[in-house]
Design a protein that fits this description.
60s Ribosomal Protein L30, Chain: A; two-stranded antiparallel sheet; about 15% strand; 5-stranded mixed sheet
Length: about 200
């Protein structure tokens, strides 16, 4: 009997300790500080940009979300961009029918511009921890990348990066705003390897 009580006491103590550890403050930077994005690309943001100008008939973007934020610009994708954002439901990374339709259109553009390389940015709304949102953003970007690969886009033309909640396109605390932040954004790279 004493063994059961002692075991239960130790088990409760362990559960309380784990619960407190999970609530510990994060050391990850918050918006306004310098975010630390996670990338599967070996290329650094300071790489020299070769081949600026036209490629495949469309001017390439040299402004990923991080660079736009550093320049004080919005990271919203322009309506005139050949590649459009894919949006996700709260706490999800699976692709909706609308997301798949957008990815099909993006794949059509990529097929007609075979030299274009794209970085897929995964973004989240502000709810959840920084660590959780970085992981969720990575899953969102990867889901988009994998779907494009099933449509015939070579994986070596696609890289992914997660910014989690660090670079929101909208800062209001409303569902409409959060919906805009839960996205995969497609940035056309210039003269940069995505492998």
């Amino acid at each position: 009997m004493k063994f059961r009580i002692r075991f239960a006491s130790h088990l409760c103590g362990l559960m309380v300790f784990c619960g407190l550890a999970a609530c510990a403050p994060s050391a990850t930077n918050k918006p306004g500080a310098n975010p630390a994005p996670r990338s599967d690309s070996d290329a650094s943001a300071s790489d020299a940009r070769a081949g600026e100008g036209q490629r495949g008939g469309t001017k390439e973007s040299d402004a990923g979300s991080l660079k736009q934020m550093q320049e004080g610009k919005s990271s919203a994708t322009s309506a005139s961009s050949p590649l459009q954002d894919v949006f996700y439901d709260f706490d999800r990374y699976d692709l909706s029918a609308d997301a798949r339709a957008t990815l099909r259109a993006n794949a059509d553009w990529l097929k007609s511009n075979p030299s274009a390389r794209v970085e897929i940015e995964g973004h989240c709304d502000e709810r959840g921890t920084n660590e959780y949102n970085l992981a969720l953003g990575a899953k969102r970007a990867q889901a988009a990348r994998e779907f494009l690969a099933t449509l015939g886009i070579p994986a070596d033309r696609l890289s992914t990066i997660s910014y989690g909640e660090e670079i929101p396109v909208c800062r209001e605390q409303t569902e409409d705003c959060w919906r805009k932040n839960r996205r995969a954004r497609f940035v056309i790279l210039q003269g940069r390897s995505t492998s």
